[in-house]
Amino acid sequence: MYDFSGIYHRIWSVSGKLVVLVIICILLGKPWKKKFLIKNHLWEFFAIIIAIGYAIIMLSRIYFPDIASYTGKFCYYNNASKIISNNREYTFENNEGRKQIFYLDVSSRVRIFPNGFEDGKMYTIYFDNFTKTIVKVKTSS
After folding, report:
1. Which of 36, 49, 71, 92 is deepest in the core (most CB within 10 A)?
2. Mean pLDDT: which of 58-62, 75-79, 94-98 is highest?
3. Distance between CA atoms of 102 and 100, rounded to whole angstroms?
4. 28-60 pLDDT per residue, tens
5. Global confidence as pTM
6. Alpha helices by DSSP H, 1-141
7. Beta strands 67-79 and 87-93: pairing type?
8. CA quadruple 18, 21, 27, 28: dihedral positive or negative?
9. Residue pair 80/89 in contact by the 8 Å Cβ criterion
10. Is 13:83 a contact under the CB 8 Å cutoff?
11. Phi–psi pair at 76, nearest 5 degrees
């Protein structure tokens, strides 16, 4: 069974933060003191549309998954993004020397693979092909 918690995390981290930012911007305009006009908040509504679009695209990855697999040894990880909180890039190298990067946040990694990755150990990574988000991990021999 695949665990899509990493994609849910991306939805809430990006779309959720954008919606909160829009709400703050609208409240800073003090709509209770003056008449609320939509034309004065076009950028905020444009940002809401972007947030909803992003969420729909990411939800489509959950409801219509395109799962691929990659077998390789774990090399290292980096913090991938300041926007998507606690998102990390995990780098694996296969037998041909090709490196591949996959993404997963810290809390989803604990759910999907609680023991963590060990340097040089072989793993089979199952991931969403569009987002490169890990959805399942198996330890290889």
Report:
1. 92
2. 58-62
3. 7
4. 877 777 777 777 778 888 999 999 999 999 999
5. 0.83
6. 5-10, 17-28, 42-63, 106-112
7. antiparallel
8. negative
9. yes
10. yes
11. -170, 175
User: Considering only 2-6, 33-37, 68-72, 96-100, which range has the smallest mean pLDDT?
Assistant: 33-37
Positive or negative torsion for Cα 102, 105, 109, 112: negative
**CB-based contacts of 97, cutoff 8 Å, min separation 6:** none
Q: Angle, to 10 degrees, between the axis of helix 42-63 and the axis of helix 17-28?
A: 160
Task: Enumerate long-range contacts of 52-56, CB under 8 Å, 24 or more apart.
Answer: 52/15, 54/11, 54/14, 54/15, 54/18, 55/11, 55/15
Q: Dihedral through CA 18, CA 9, CA 78, CA 64, nearest 10?
A: -110
3-state secondary structure of 49: helix
